[in-house]
Amino acid sequence: NWTTRNVVEESIAAIREQVGTKRAICGLSGGVDSAVAAALVQKAVGSQLTCVYVDHGLMRKGESEQVEKDFVAATGVQLKVVDAQERFLDALAGVSEPEQKRKIIGREFIRVFEQAASEIVAEAGAHGEQVEFLVQGTLYPDVVESGGGTGTANIKSHHNVGGLPEDLQFQLVEPLRRLFKDEVRMVGQELGLPDEIVQRQPFPGPGLGIRIVGEVTKERLDLLREADAIAREELTAAGLDRDIWQCPVVLLADVRSVGVQGDGRTYGHPIVLRPVSSEDAMTADWSRLPYEVLAKISTRITNEVDEVNRVVLDVTSKPPGTIEWE
Ligand code: XMP
User: Which residues are ATP-binding (predicted)?
Assistant: First the structure.
């Protein structure tokens, strides 16, 4: 008898049984899976949970606030926010190659998260408490893909703050292991999470870092954030969110083209719109968006975003194109 309420109640009972009186930590990514997993554990064991949000500066406009304010307000979780924007920008300086960017972002993310986890473990230890669990938003398809195993996570601490253990060992808590994505969204809704998080379309872990073709800089990120926010706003206003799997907005930072605006010639960057429809992201087709919506997005982006003088539409299916540009 599958009802969302049953699923929530059963999983809360299971989490209480697993975690007992120990402490748990959970990394929030801004996405729906980690948010719903954290919200369930919070319901089950309350203040025994501490969440960590690494702000790498590669999120879209408003997304960090959604986690830091709206998610916290909706759930009451204890949240440790790490502002790592400078660190990520420094690490990415001078790097244009996509796989290199991914590696750097992944590596920095793990280091910053481990550092935060070590601090939480140390603080708990000072109060005689033990952090034994790491919460993860693993879904059923991930479980199947990885052969069904469950277990522990071993976190090596790279930055040895005095007195911390060399290795942090955690047992995994995976409350979404039996759920599909749409069920996770229903659970999130049942738990009262904000729509912006529950209905969020897929967004890659490396964030806007792989949507800037060229080097990632603060200026370019700010510019892309503005263009992306306009595209999202207009797609939502046109009621198209449910028709589109996701719509990457890409800045071709290493390309310039000539334009004319106001009383003069411009030499600016193109923005690419990549709206796709898909079932599972393995294959995709480009979305046939209404011309009026495309026109509105184009006019607004070229008017409102400095340095952008051209908007182009990606009409490539996957394969041969990937959904992301990098
Ligand atoms: P591609 O570009 O390979 O993307 O067609 C397929 C889906 O995966 C997402 N994507 C990523 N997600 N880390 C992620 O967490 C990544 O490095 C990454 N690269 C692509 C992409 O947004 C699409 O939904």
Answer: 29-35
